[in-house]
């Protein structure tokens, strides 16, 4: 295990003050006969593209709604044959959804880049219409390409902007928007010059779980390994994990739950069948917090939500970052825990059945518990509350 990347460093927590003179929203008109104190505040959440932006946005939206706010969402429409993730997830949670006909440009080719000015102008115009229609007291940018036109036009119209960056490497939109935002927060330290490090907004089920010392108490038998490929699956894990398990004597193999996404579940079953290995194979996991908490070890990618959820719960993890992630941000996400002894990092280029089998065989419940406890000590779990508090402070009561 010690051949994998894992070293301890000191962590800094440098908090910087928010801008001295933030914009403050004027009161939203109330219903006839109502008092200003009883008015309903409105927030416009902007996020899209991936679950790493959407789920933290939903965590903030849920808390705002619980405190009596009206919450609307600005996201991408997606294509004719492939609706955006946010357009599927957000309305199902009961939020009004406003869509822009705009998508990311990085890695999409020269033609997409050439058309960017026209597409951006249209997105700016659509964003103005949305902001005028919704009339939010505050706008919240949670990252992703969709945030840029929406936030820029909201600022132009005088709306206070709260910005949150989920990854250890700031996205292009947030790097630009940080200069005009009233409050800037980040999930990892030292990401943006003016950002306050607060952690990642988490869904409530990831907060308040028993610490790893209590969860591990009384565990015996084979190690419990959870392999997480995400909604789209991770083909390299689907191919390598069964082969690695086949190299381990049956009586020494860990007990495995392997999640792959619906598109790859049939191929995953075939891989395990060819390897002659038994495991619980599932396309999705509804209660991810419980699945993480019940595992001794998680093998996964290193998206921002995954890393911060693992830290919040206190779970030992072997991270295999997605090599094609923009700016290699997944490796940087994982490093936050790995460099403090709260996980292991195995680059995909170095992943093999032999190496993974060796890792499984060398792992002990004691070493995994120590890693899980360290990960939990690295966590910040009040990001949702801090973002919501900032929204309230920027609205005139």
Characterization of this structure:
This protein has 397 residues and is an alpha/beta fold. Helix content is 39%, strand content 14%. The protein has 15 helices and 13 strands. The chain has helices at residues 51-66, 85-92, 110-114, 116-134, 147-156, 172-177, 212-216, 235-246, 265-275, 288-294, 304-313, 329-338, 353-362, 365-377, 383-393; strands at residues 42-46, 70-76, 96-100, 138-141, 161-165, 183-186, 196-197, 224-228, 255-259, 280-282, 297-300, 316-319, 344-345. The strands form two sheets. A seven-stranded parallel beta sheet has the order 3-2-1-4-5-6-7, sandwiched between helices. Helix 9 links the parallel strand 9 (255-259) and strand 10. Helix 4 (116-134) packs across helix 5. The longest helix is centred in the N-terminal third of the chain and has 19 residues, at 116-134. It is elongated, with a radius of gyration of 22 Å. It starts with 41 loop residues before the first strand and ends with a helix.
Summarize the structure.
The protein is an alpha/beta fold and 397 residues long. It contains 15 helices and 13 strands. The strands form two sheets. It has a seven-stranded parallel sheet, with helices on both faces. Strands 10-9-8-11-12-13 form a six-stranded parallel sheet, with helices on both faces.
Strand order of the largest sheet: 3-2-1-4-5-6-7
Number of helices: 15
Instruction: Determine Rg (CA atoms, Å).
Output: 22 Å
Structural class: alpha/beta
Order of helices and strands: EHEHEHHEHEHEEHEHEHEHEHEHEHHH
Average pLDDT confidence is: 89
Low-confidence runs of at least 5 consecutive residues: 7-20, 29-37
Number of strands: 13
Shape: elongated
Strand content: 5-15%
State the end-to-end CA separation. Answer: 55 Å
């Amino acid at each position: 295990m010690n051949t994998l990347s894992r070293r301890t460093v000191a962590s800094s927590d440098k908090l910087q003050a928010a801008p001295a003179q933030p914009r403050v929203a004027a009161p939203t008109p109330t219903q006839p006969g109502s008092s200003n104190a009883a008015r309903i505040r409105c927030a416009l959440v902007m996020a899209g593209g991936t679950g790493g932006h959407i789920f933290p946005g939903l965590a903030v939206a849920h808390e705002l709604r619980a405190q009596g706010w009206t919450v609307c969402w600005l996201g991408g429409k997606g294509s004719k044959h492939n609706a955006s993730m946010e357009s599927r997830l957000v309305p199902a949670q009961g939020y009004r959804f406003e869509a822009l006909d705009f998508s990311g440009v990085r890695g999409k080719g020269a033609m997409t880049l050439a058309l960017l000015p026209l597409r951006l102008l249209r997105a700016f115009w659509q964003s103005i219409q949305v902001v005028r229609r919704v009339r939010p007291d505050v706008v919240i940018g949670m990252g992703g390409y969709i945030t840029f036109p929406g936030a820029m036009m909201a600022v132009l119209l005088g709306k206070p902007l709260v910005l949150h960056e989920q990854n250890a490497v700031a996205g292009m939109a947030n790097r630009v928007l940080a200069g005009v935002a009233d409050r800037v927060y980040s999930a990892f330290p030292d990401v943006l010059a003016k950002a306050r490090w607060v952690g990642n907004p988490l869904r409530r089920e990831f907060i308040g779980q028993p610490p790893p010392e209590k969860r591990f108490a009384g565990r015996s038998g084979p190690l419990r390994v959870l392999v997480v490929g995400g909604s789209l699956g991770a083909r390299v894990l689907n191919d390598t994990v069964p082969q690695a398990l086949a190299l381990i004597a049956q009586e020494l193999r860990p007990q495995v739950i392997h999640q792959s996404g619906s598109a790859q579940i049939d191929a995953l079953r075939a891989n395990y069948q060819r390897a002659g290995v038994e495991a619980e194979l599932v396309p999705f996991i509804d209660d991810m917090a419980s699945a993480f908490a019940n595992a001794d070890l998680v093998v996964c990618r290193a998206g921002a939500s995954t890393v911060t959820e693992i830290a919040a719960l206190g779970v030992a993890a072997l991270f295999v970052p997605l090599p094609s992630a923009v700016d290699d941000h997944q490796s940087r996400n994982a490093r936050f825990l790995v460099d403090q002894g709260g996980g292991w990092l195995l680059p995909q280029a170095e992943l093999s059945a032999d190496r993974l089998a060796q890792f499984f065989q060398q792992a002990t419940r004691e070493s995994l518990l120590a890693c899980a406890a360290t990960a939990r000590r690295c966590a910040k779990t009040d990001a949702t509350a801090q973002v919501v508090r900032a929204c309230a402070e920027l609205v005139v009561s």
